[in-house]
Design brief:
The protein is of the alpha+beta class and about 90 residues long. The protein has a single domain (about 5-85), classed as Beta-grasp domain (Ubiquitin-like (UB roll), Roll), CATH 3.10.20. The protein has helices at about 15-20, 35-45, 45-50; strands at about 5-10, 25-30, 60-65, 70, 80-85. The protein has a five-stranded mixed beta sheet with strand order 2-1-5-3-4, with helices on one face.
């Protein structure tokens, strides 16, 4: 697989509540997770702020997986891969 093609992003229900027009699964063209976040933000303005902090880095309570492996903004995304965005669950 080559980076920079179409990937499927699976969004968590928590983001769907904040972005009512967002779809559970969406296809974007991207070569890195940073580009995935940019594509999501272009489609639904404000989503980048929900996924990333100001450093910029993926927020502590957000996990993004590419092919089952936890990713950073620099992680390459091969064409055809599924990217899962998950919110962390904490308890006490």
């Amino acid at each position: 697989m080559v980076a920079g093609g179409s990937v499927t992003v699976v969004l968590p229900r928590a983001l769907l509540v904040l972005f009512p027009d967002a779809e559970r699964e969406v296809s974007v063209t991207a070569g890195t997770i940073g580009e995935v976040v940019g594509a999501l933000d272009a489609r639904w303005p404000g989503m980048r702020d929900r996924l990333c902090d100001s450093t910029p880095r993926i927020r502590r309570h957000i996990n993004i997986f590419v092919g089952g492996v936890r990713a950073t903004l620099e992680t390459a995304v091969p064409a055809g891969v599924r990217v899962h965005v998950l919110t962390a669950i904490s308890g006490g």
